Amino acid sequence: PAVILPTGTSQDHLIVKEREKVIISCNSYGIPSPNISWYANWKNGLNARLYNNKKDIFVNYNTVTIFNISRIHNGSYTCIVDNKVEGKQSKSFKLEIWYEPSIKMGNDVIEQSQGRETMIQAIINGHPINSIQWEKNSKILNLSANKCFYIGRTKKYCFYLDKTGHFQEQKAQLWIYNLSAIDFTSYRCLIVSPFGNIFGTTKIIEFKPINHDSWDSYLSIANDYRKLLNTHKNKKAIDSNIESNKAIYFQNQKQNLNKSLFINFGEKKELEYKNSNSYFYFDILVAFVITITNLLCKYI
């Protein structure tokens, strides 16, 4: 019967770095000489029988050679030996591909208010990853991965590691609760691997809503500019621009402005607009009186 010999057969677990070459051997013996078939079960979900593809895989009876190996070749490989005598024999090999890690931060800057919570996320790829650490101002936060949704917010920080991403992608999340002044600073996610250390940084800054005085300053500048105009046509265009900018202003800041403050702003702008219209109609009345007086003086 066909047998797989330990001598000349590869180890069960093979570790290869990306872009290198690997040879998997399955040494067999039998009378008559057995046929050998090769199959791959890749971690990306694909299963296939292996043939020469003239690109990166070469099958030569009892060996499989993979050139310029990449992470897509990660998985298990099986040789099946059969000479039609007393059944088949098989052996599987685990092929583990090491490749350099990469990190991408969800945000470079996060803006949040005091007393609120926020989450910093780092998307990590690479294998193997020895450790993932979070640092605040270059000082390590001693954290272990938890289900942050179930801690009841009793802690200042929570580290959650999501491994459900595509292939070997991981999402490292740092949750920070009840933000105070000392929390508005830089945070770093540090990745330790056999290829060296890499990191990504996110800065948290305090969100401060624009106050009443800022809008007053805008109106003051707009009014000064309007005084430089010589015609009522241009004045009307500037009025329209002010109204448009005011609408945009309140739309962007509505979550931070209370109702009473909005009403005060509205009343102030409405009064200003009414006063502006009053001057406009007064100018027309004066011009009309002057014209009538000139006509009377000319013909009487």
TrEMBL record:
* Coiled-coil parts of chain: none
GO cellular component terms attached to this protein's record: neuron projection
Q: What is this protein called?
A: Hmctn
Q: What is the lineage of its organism?
A: Eukaryota, Metazoa, Spiralia, Lophotrochozoa, Platyhelminthes
Kindly give the PANTHER family that the UniProt entry links to this protein.
Answer: CTX-RELATED TYPE I TRANSMEMBRANE PROTEIN, DPR-INTERACTING PROTEIN ETA, ISOFORM B-RELATED
Which Pfam families is this protein grouped with? Ig_3 (PF13927)
Q: Which PROSITE patterns match?
A: IG_LIKE (PS50835)
Domain Ig-like stretches: 1-96
Keywords of the record: Disulfide bond, Immunoglobulin domain, Repeat
